[in-house]
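Practice problem: predict the structure.
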Amino acid sequence: MVDEVRRRVQNETMGHRGRKDDPLYRARKLLIAGDERLDERGRAKLMEALRRGDPFDEVLGAWLAKEACRSIYMQDDVADAANILDDTITGCAEDPVAEIRTFGRTLSRWRGEILNHHRTGASNGPTEGTNFCAKQVKRAGRGFTRFSNYRLRVLLYAGGVTWPSPIMAPRITSTRPH
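Answer:
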């Protein structure tokens, strides 16, 4: 959402896509970084870029909405997270920027799932990682013709293959005395 607003404002103010000398383009990585990860120099650079390239504070509003959403996940208590989430949804719904209103509707639709993270501590990260691994193998395979080959390749790539131990032939001994 922050990138969408940044690109739109960039196009409207400069009349072209971002170029290396444009203030918002230069600050694109700072805009998506967490506020706690910015040092004083980075924060000053971000604020200067917003001052120079964001005449109507639309990108600033998107950045603040992103930070409000991130603060939901910083909470330990479900009730605190619910309060911040509801405030964020309300703030986004009242914003004049269309992308931020869309972000608010998305948060509203996912409210239960977001709060379930606080109730259970569960994450879909491992599932997403496995899906990414399978897609990487499929992309590199250029079309497998047999599912068994695709499955084996995914297992090898993911490091999850457990080969059966080889069957050892029984030792043959003679009953003849030495």
